[in-house]
């Protein structure tokens, strides 16, 4: 073998050795990169806390890439970069994820980091202080020479930057930039997920607090303290409610329209062991038989064209209370099905075959005379006794006049707060009108009258016109009471004069102006009537 051949073989051997070394080095680099990616993935997947995610990433990166300082800065709502996590490898005590004092920050677009955010392009500098974009921090413990800064981008939005720095020039190589780009992408997604989780947590907490506040408001409104009234008839109702509220007994509430039957039903629910369950109300008089049946028991898909399956009120109120308003208007065929649900504690949807177990407390209400309807065969007697385990009879507002003014004051405060209007006090004439009005619509009518007054009043106090009430009407005589009791006799004389005048006028109208007939109807002599007509200025009548 010649010398040239041997030299050629040696050159080829050395070339193969170099190639093998390069391949081995590249292989080791890939292994290191994959190991780093795995470590970062494990770290980022182990927590959804924003600071923990950023801090662990900085730890791992500094161990994989030789650098003296690493940090993550995130954009705030104003576009400024705020330090989220930082670590100095040369001094373990300098590690800081919870920065004491003022948190380091760069204004929007400031420094190299700000430019990286703006351009979305990584920056790798061997001599950072010579770059015109560089902003030196006076509180920095270690001078910065080499710098590498990468944007954190997720869903086409820059979230912040990942920084590495060193006091030695040329500390970072292109391979470092390639490795950190992989880390930056993973960190950006982790930051985005952590922020979304934080927002969801805050929303959930806010929702929980709001739910708690609403429950508290419901408890206050529908607690026994929310039922306004001190009249004997209403105190009797309150005493009965307190006895039965914490039971599961069915209750029948009877009373005229507007007396507050649904309010009583809600009070029973919110003071019962079922208060955490649903309260569902349905007006049996508002729906025809076919729709009422589907609303009560539910319906299966395909029963009619375009109909989807849905649960009825019995299913939706399971575990809570079902309020059947105006039960006296329910058709007899539906009554039979309601009775079966009460007895079997199961409901079958319209068009369905499978029975669904339900656990419902029933509160029924009506303004009708159910015993009379039973006698007329318009209401099932067996259903009546199922519903009336306890009967609550609500008095009309006219039967509890002591409660009119307290109720009006309660509604005044509520509507003034709801509509953002001043709570003007009731004037004397308004109070008199409230007390004298017959209130055929009961508490509901009073509530609407007070709301109207809150909305339309312009003076310093509420007057009858604001309430939509008249001071004088056919039902009787109205007048303003005196400020002092010393004026009693004067006021009484005025009242007698008004009454006498009205009676004489009415008698003359009924007698078609015949004074003799009018005097006979009034039980007085004709001459006495003529005298009174002259005194009252009615002698021309």
Q: What does the largest sheet look like? A: 6 strands, antiparallel
Strand fraction equals: 5-15%
The count of domains is 4
Radius of gyration, CA atoms, in whole angstroms: 43 Å
Structural class category: alpha/beta
Shape descriptor: elongated
Give the terminus-to-terminus CA distance: 158 Å
**Uncertain residue ranges:** 90-101, 472-477
Q: Helical amount among residues, as a percent range?
A: 40-55%
Q: What's the number of helices?
A: 18
Q: Which CATH first-tier class of the largest domain would you pick?
A: Alpha Beta
CATH topology (level 3) name of the largest domain: Beta-Lactamase
Would you identify the CATH H-level superfamily of the largest domain? GAF domain
Find the count of extended strands (DSSP E, 2+ residues). 13
**Overall pLDDT confidence:** 81
CATH architecture of the largest domain: 2-Layer Sandwich
Strand order of the largest sheet: 3-2-1-6-5-4
Spell out the blueprint of helices and strands:
Layout lengths: L2 H43 L4 H15 L4 E7 L5 E8 L16 E2 L4 H9 L3 E3 L20 E9 L2 E10 L7 H49 L9 H13 L6 E4 L6 H10 L8 E5 L5 H9 L15 H4 L4 E5 L6 H13 L1 E3 L6 E3 L3 E6 L3 H6 L5 H7 L2 E4 L10 H16 L8 H9 L5 H15 L7 H4 L20 H23 L4 H8 L3 H10 L6
Parallel strand pairs: 7-12, 7-13, 8-9, 9-12
Antiparallel strand pairs: 1-2, 1-6, 2-3, 4-5, 5-6, 10-11
């Amino acid at each position: 073998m010649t010398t040239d051949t041997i030299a050629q073989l040696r050159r080829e051997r050395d070339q193969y050795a170099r190639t093998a070394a390069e391949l081995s080095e590249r292989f080791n680099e890939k292994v290191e990169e994959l190991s780093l990616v795995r470590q970062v993935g494990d770290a980022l997947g182990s927590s959804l806390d924003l600071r923990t995610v950023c801090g662990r990433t900085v730890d791992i990166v500094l161990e994989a890439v030789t650098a003296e300082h690493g940090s993550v800065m995130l954009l705030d709502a104003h576009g400024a970069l705020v330090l989220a996590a930082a670590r100095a490898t040369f001094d373990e005590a300098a590690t800081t994820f919870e920065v004491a004092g003022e948190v380091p920050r760069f204004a929007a677009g400031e420094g190299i980091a700000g430019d990286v955010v703006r351009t979305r392009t990584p920056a790798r500098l061997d001599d950072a202080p010579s770059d015109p974009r560089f902003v030196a921090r006076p509180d920095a413990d270690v001078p910065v020479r080499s710098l590498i800064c990468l944007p954190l981008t997720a869903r086409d939005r820059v979230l912040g930057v990942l920084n590495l720095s060193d006091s030695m020039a040329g500390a970072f190589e292109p391979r470092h930039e390639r490795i950190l780009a992989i880390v930056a992408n993973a960190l950006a997604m982790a930051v985005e997920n952590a922020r979304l989780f934080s927002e969801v947590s805050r929303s959930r907490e806010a929702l929980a607090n709001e739910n708690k506040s609403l429950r508290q408001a419901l408890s206050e409104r529908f607690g026994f303290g929310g039922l306004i009234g001190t009249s004997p008839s209403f105190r009797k109702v309150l005493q009965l409610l307190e006895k039965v509220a914490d039971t599961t007994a069915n209750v029948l509430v009877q009373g005229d329209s507007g007396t507050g039957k649904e309010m009583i039903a809600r009070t029973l629910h919110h003071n019962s062991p079922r208060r955490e369950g649903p309260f569902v109300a349905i007006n049996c008089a508002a729906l025809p038989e076919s729709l009422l049946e589907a609303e009560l028991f539910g319906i299966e898909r395909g029963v009619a064209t375009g109909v989807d399956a849905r649960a009825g009120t019995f299913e939706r109120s399971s575990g809570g209370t079902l309020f059947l308003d105006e039960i006296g208007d329910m058709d007899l065929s539906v009554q039979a099905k309601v009775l079966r649900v009460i007895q079997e504690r199961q409901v079958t949807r319209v068009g369905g075959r499978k029975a669904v177990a339900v656990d419902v407390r029933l509160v029924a209400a009506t303004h009708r005379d159910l015993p009379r309807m039973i006698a007329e065969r318009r209401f099932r007697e067996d259903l009546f006794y199922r519903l009336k385990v306890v009967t609550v009879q609500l008095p009309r507002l006219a039967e509890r006049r002591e409660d009119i003014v307290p109720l009006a004051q309660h509604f005044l405060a509520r509507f003034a707060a709801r509509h953002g209007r001043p709570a003007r006090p009731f004037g004397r004439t308004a109070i008199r009108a409230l007390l004298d009005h017959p209130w055929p619509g009961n508490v509901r009518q009073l509530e609407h009258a007070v709301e109207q007054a809150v909305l339309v009043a312009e003076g310093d106090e509420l007057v009858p016109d604001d309430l939509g009430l008249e001071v004088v009407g056919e039902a009787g005589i109205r007048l303003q009471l005196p400020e002092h009791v010393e004026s009693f006799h004067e006021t009484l004389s005025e009242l007698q004069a008004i009454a006498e005048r009205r009676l004489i006028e009415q008698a003359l109208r009924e007698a078609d102006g015949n004074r003799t007939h009018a005097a006979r109807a009034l039980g007085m002599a004709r001459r006495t009537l003529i005298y009174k007509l002259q005194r009252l200025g009615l002698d021309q009548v």
